[in-house]
Amino acid sequence: MKYTKTPFALKLKMLRLERGKSQESLAKELDISRSCLANYETGKRQPDNDMLVRIADLFHVMTDYLVDRTEYRNLDFTMQEIKDFTNIKQILNNHGPTLDLSVLQAESRLAVIQYFEYIKAMVQQEKNNKS
What we know:
By secondary structure, the chain is mainly α. Helices cover 66% and strands 0% of the residues.
């Protein structure tokens, strides 16, 4: 039976080599056997969701990157930005289409504007990549 390397297999090996890790050391960190890791890297096996998340966390990448749903390894947000986005999401969920930004503190208004600017930039970048 012939196995073909999947995008996941290639990315896992690339990430491991970028970090200068051996299969043995990475397998130990993931609490799996070296042969299991070797099977992931050759495409003979695919990790379950829990293992996929552990691998993504270890390498600080998104699971979508590992399974080839995006070319972006991660989104570079600060912890404060993540907190701001969480607050924005809560506000949007609570107020829906009737959201009145004037009731927000200046910090929150700025976070909403920055979030939408980020979204617009990402959409534009996707359009440019497809061109």
